Amino acid sequence: MPELVCEECGQKMFHENETTLKIEENIHKKFCRGKMGQTHSYMHRDDAHMSTFDIERSADEKGKPLVK
User: Fold this and answer.
1) Separation CA 50–CA 15 (nearest Å)
2) Residue ranges of the domains in the chain?
3) Any residues with CB less than 8 A from the CB of 67 and at least 6 apart, and which?
4) DSSP codes, the chain
5) For residue 50, is pLDDT > 70?
6) Are 1 and 25 spatial neighbours (Cβ–Cβ below 8 Å)?
7) Residue 33 in contact with residue 39, Cβ under 8 Å?
8) Is 7 in contact with 32 (CB distance < 8 Å)?
9) pLDDT-derived band of residue 59, with 50, 70 and 90 as boundaries?
10) For residues 43 and 35, what is the distance between their CA atoms, to the nearest angstrom?
11) Which residues touch 10 (CB under 8 Å, ≥6 apart)?
């Protein structure tokens, strides 16, 4: 069974279909987290925009905040 090991993070990927494995490799290259333990995020949010974008739905009916 064909397999790959990412040089950056060490994740082992394998699949019986070689074409599917190449697709997995391409996707992994885009989202590889690098070395284990590194902080990473695919969604970057500016600290100045930490308030909710939808003020009307920021709390439930009782006034309890939905977003922490």
Assistant:
1) 41
2) 1-36
3) 52, 58
4) --EEE-TTT--EEE-SSHHHHHHHHHHHHHH---STT----SS---GGG-S-S-GGGSB-TTS-BS--
5) no
6) no
7) no
8) no
9) confident
10) 19
11) 36
Given a contact cutoff of 8 angstroms between Cβ atoms, the answer to whether 18 and 28 are in contact is: no
Tell me the C-alpha distance between 40 and 31, whole Å: 10
Cα–Cα dist 13/24, whole Å: 8
Residue 59: C-alpha distances to residues 5, 30, 35, 56 (Å): 45, 35, 38, 7
pLDDT of residue 35: 67
The count of residues in the chain is 68
Q: For residue 24, what are its two tokens?
A: 């997995």
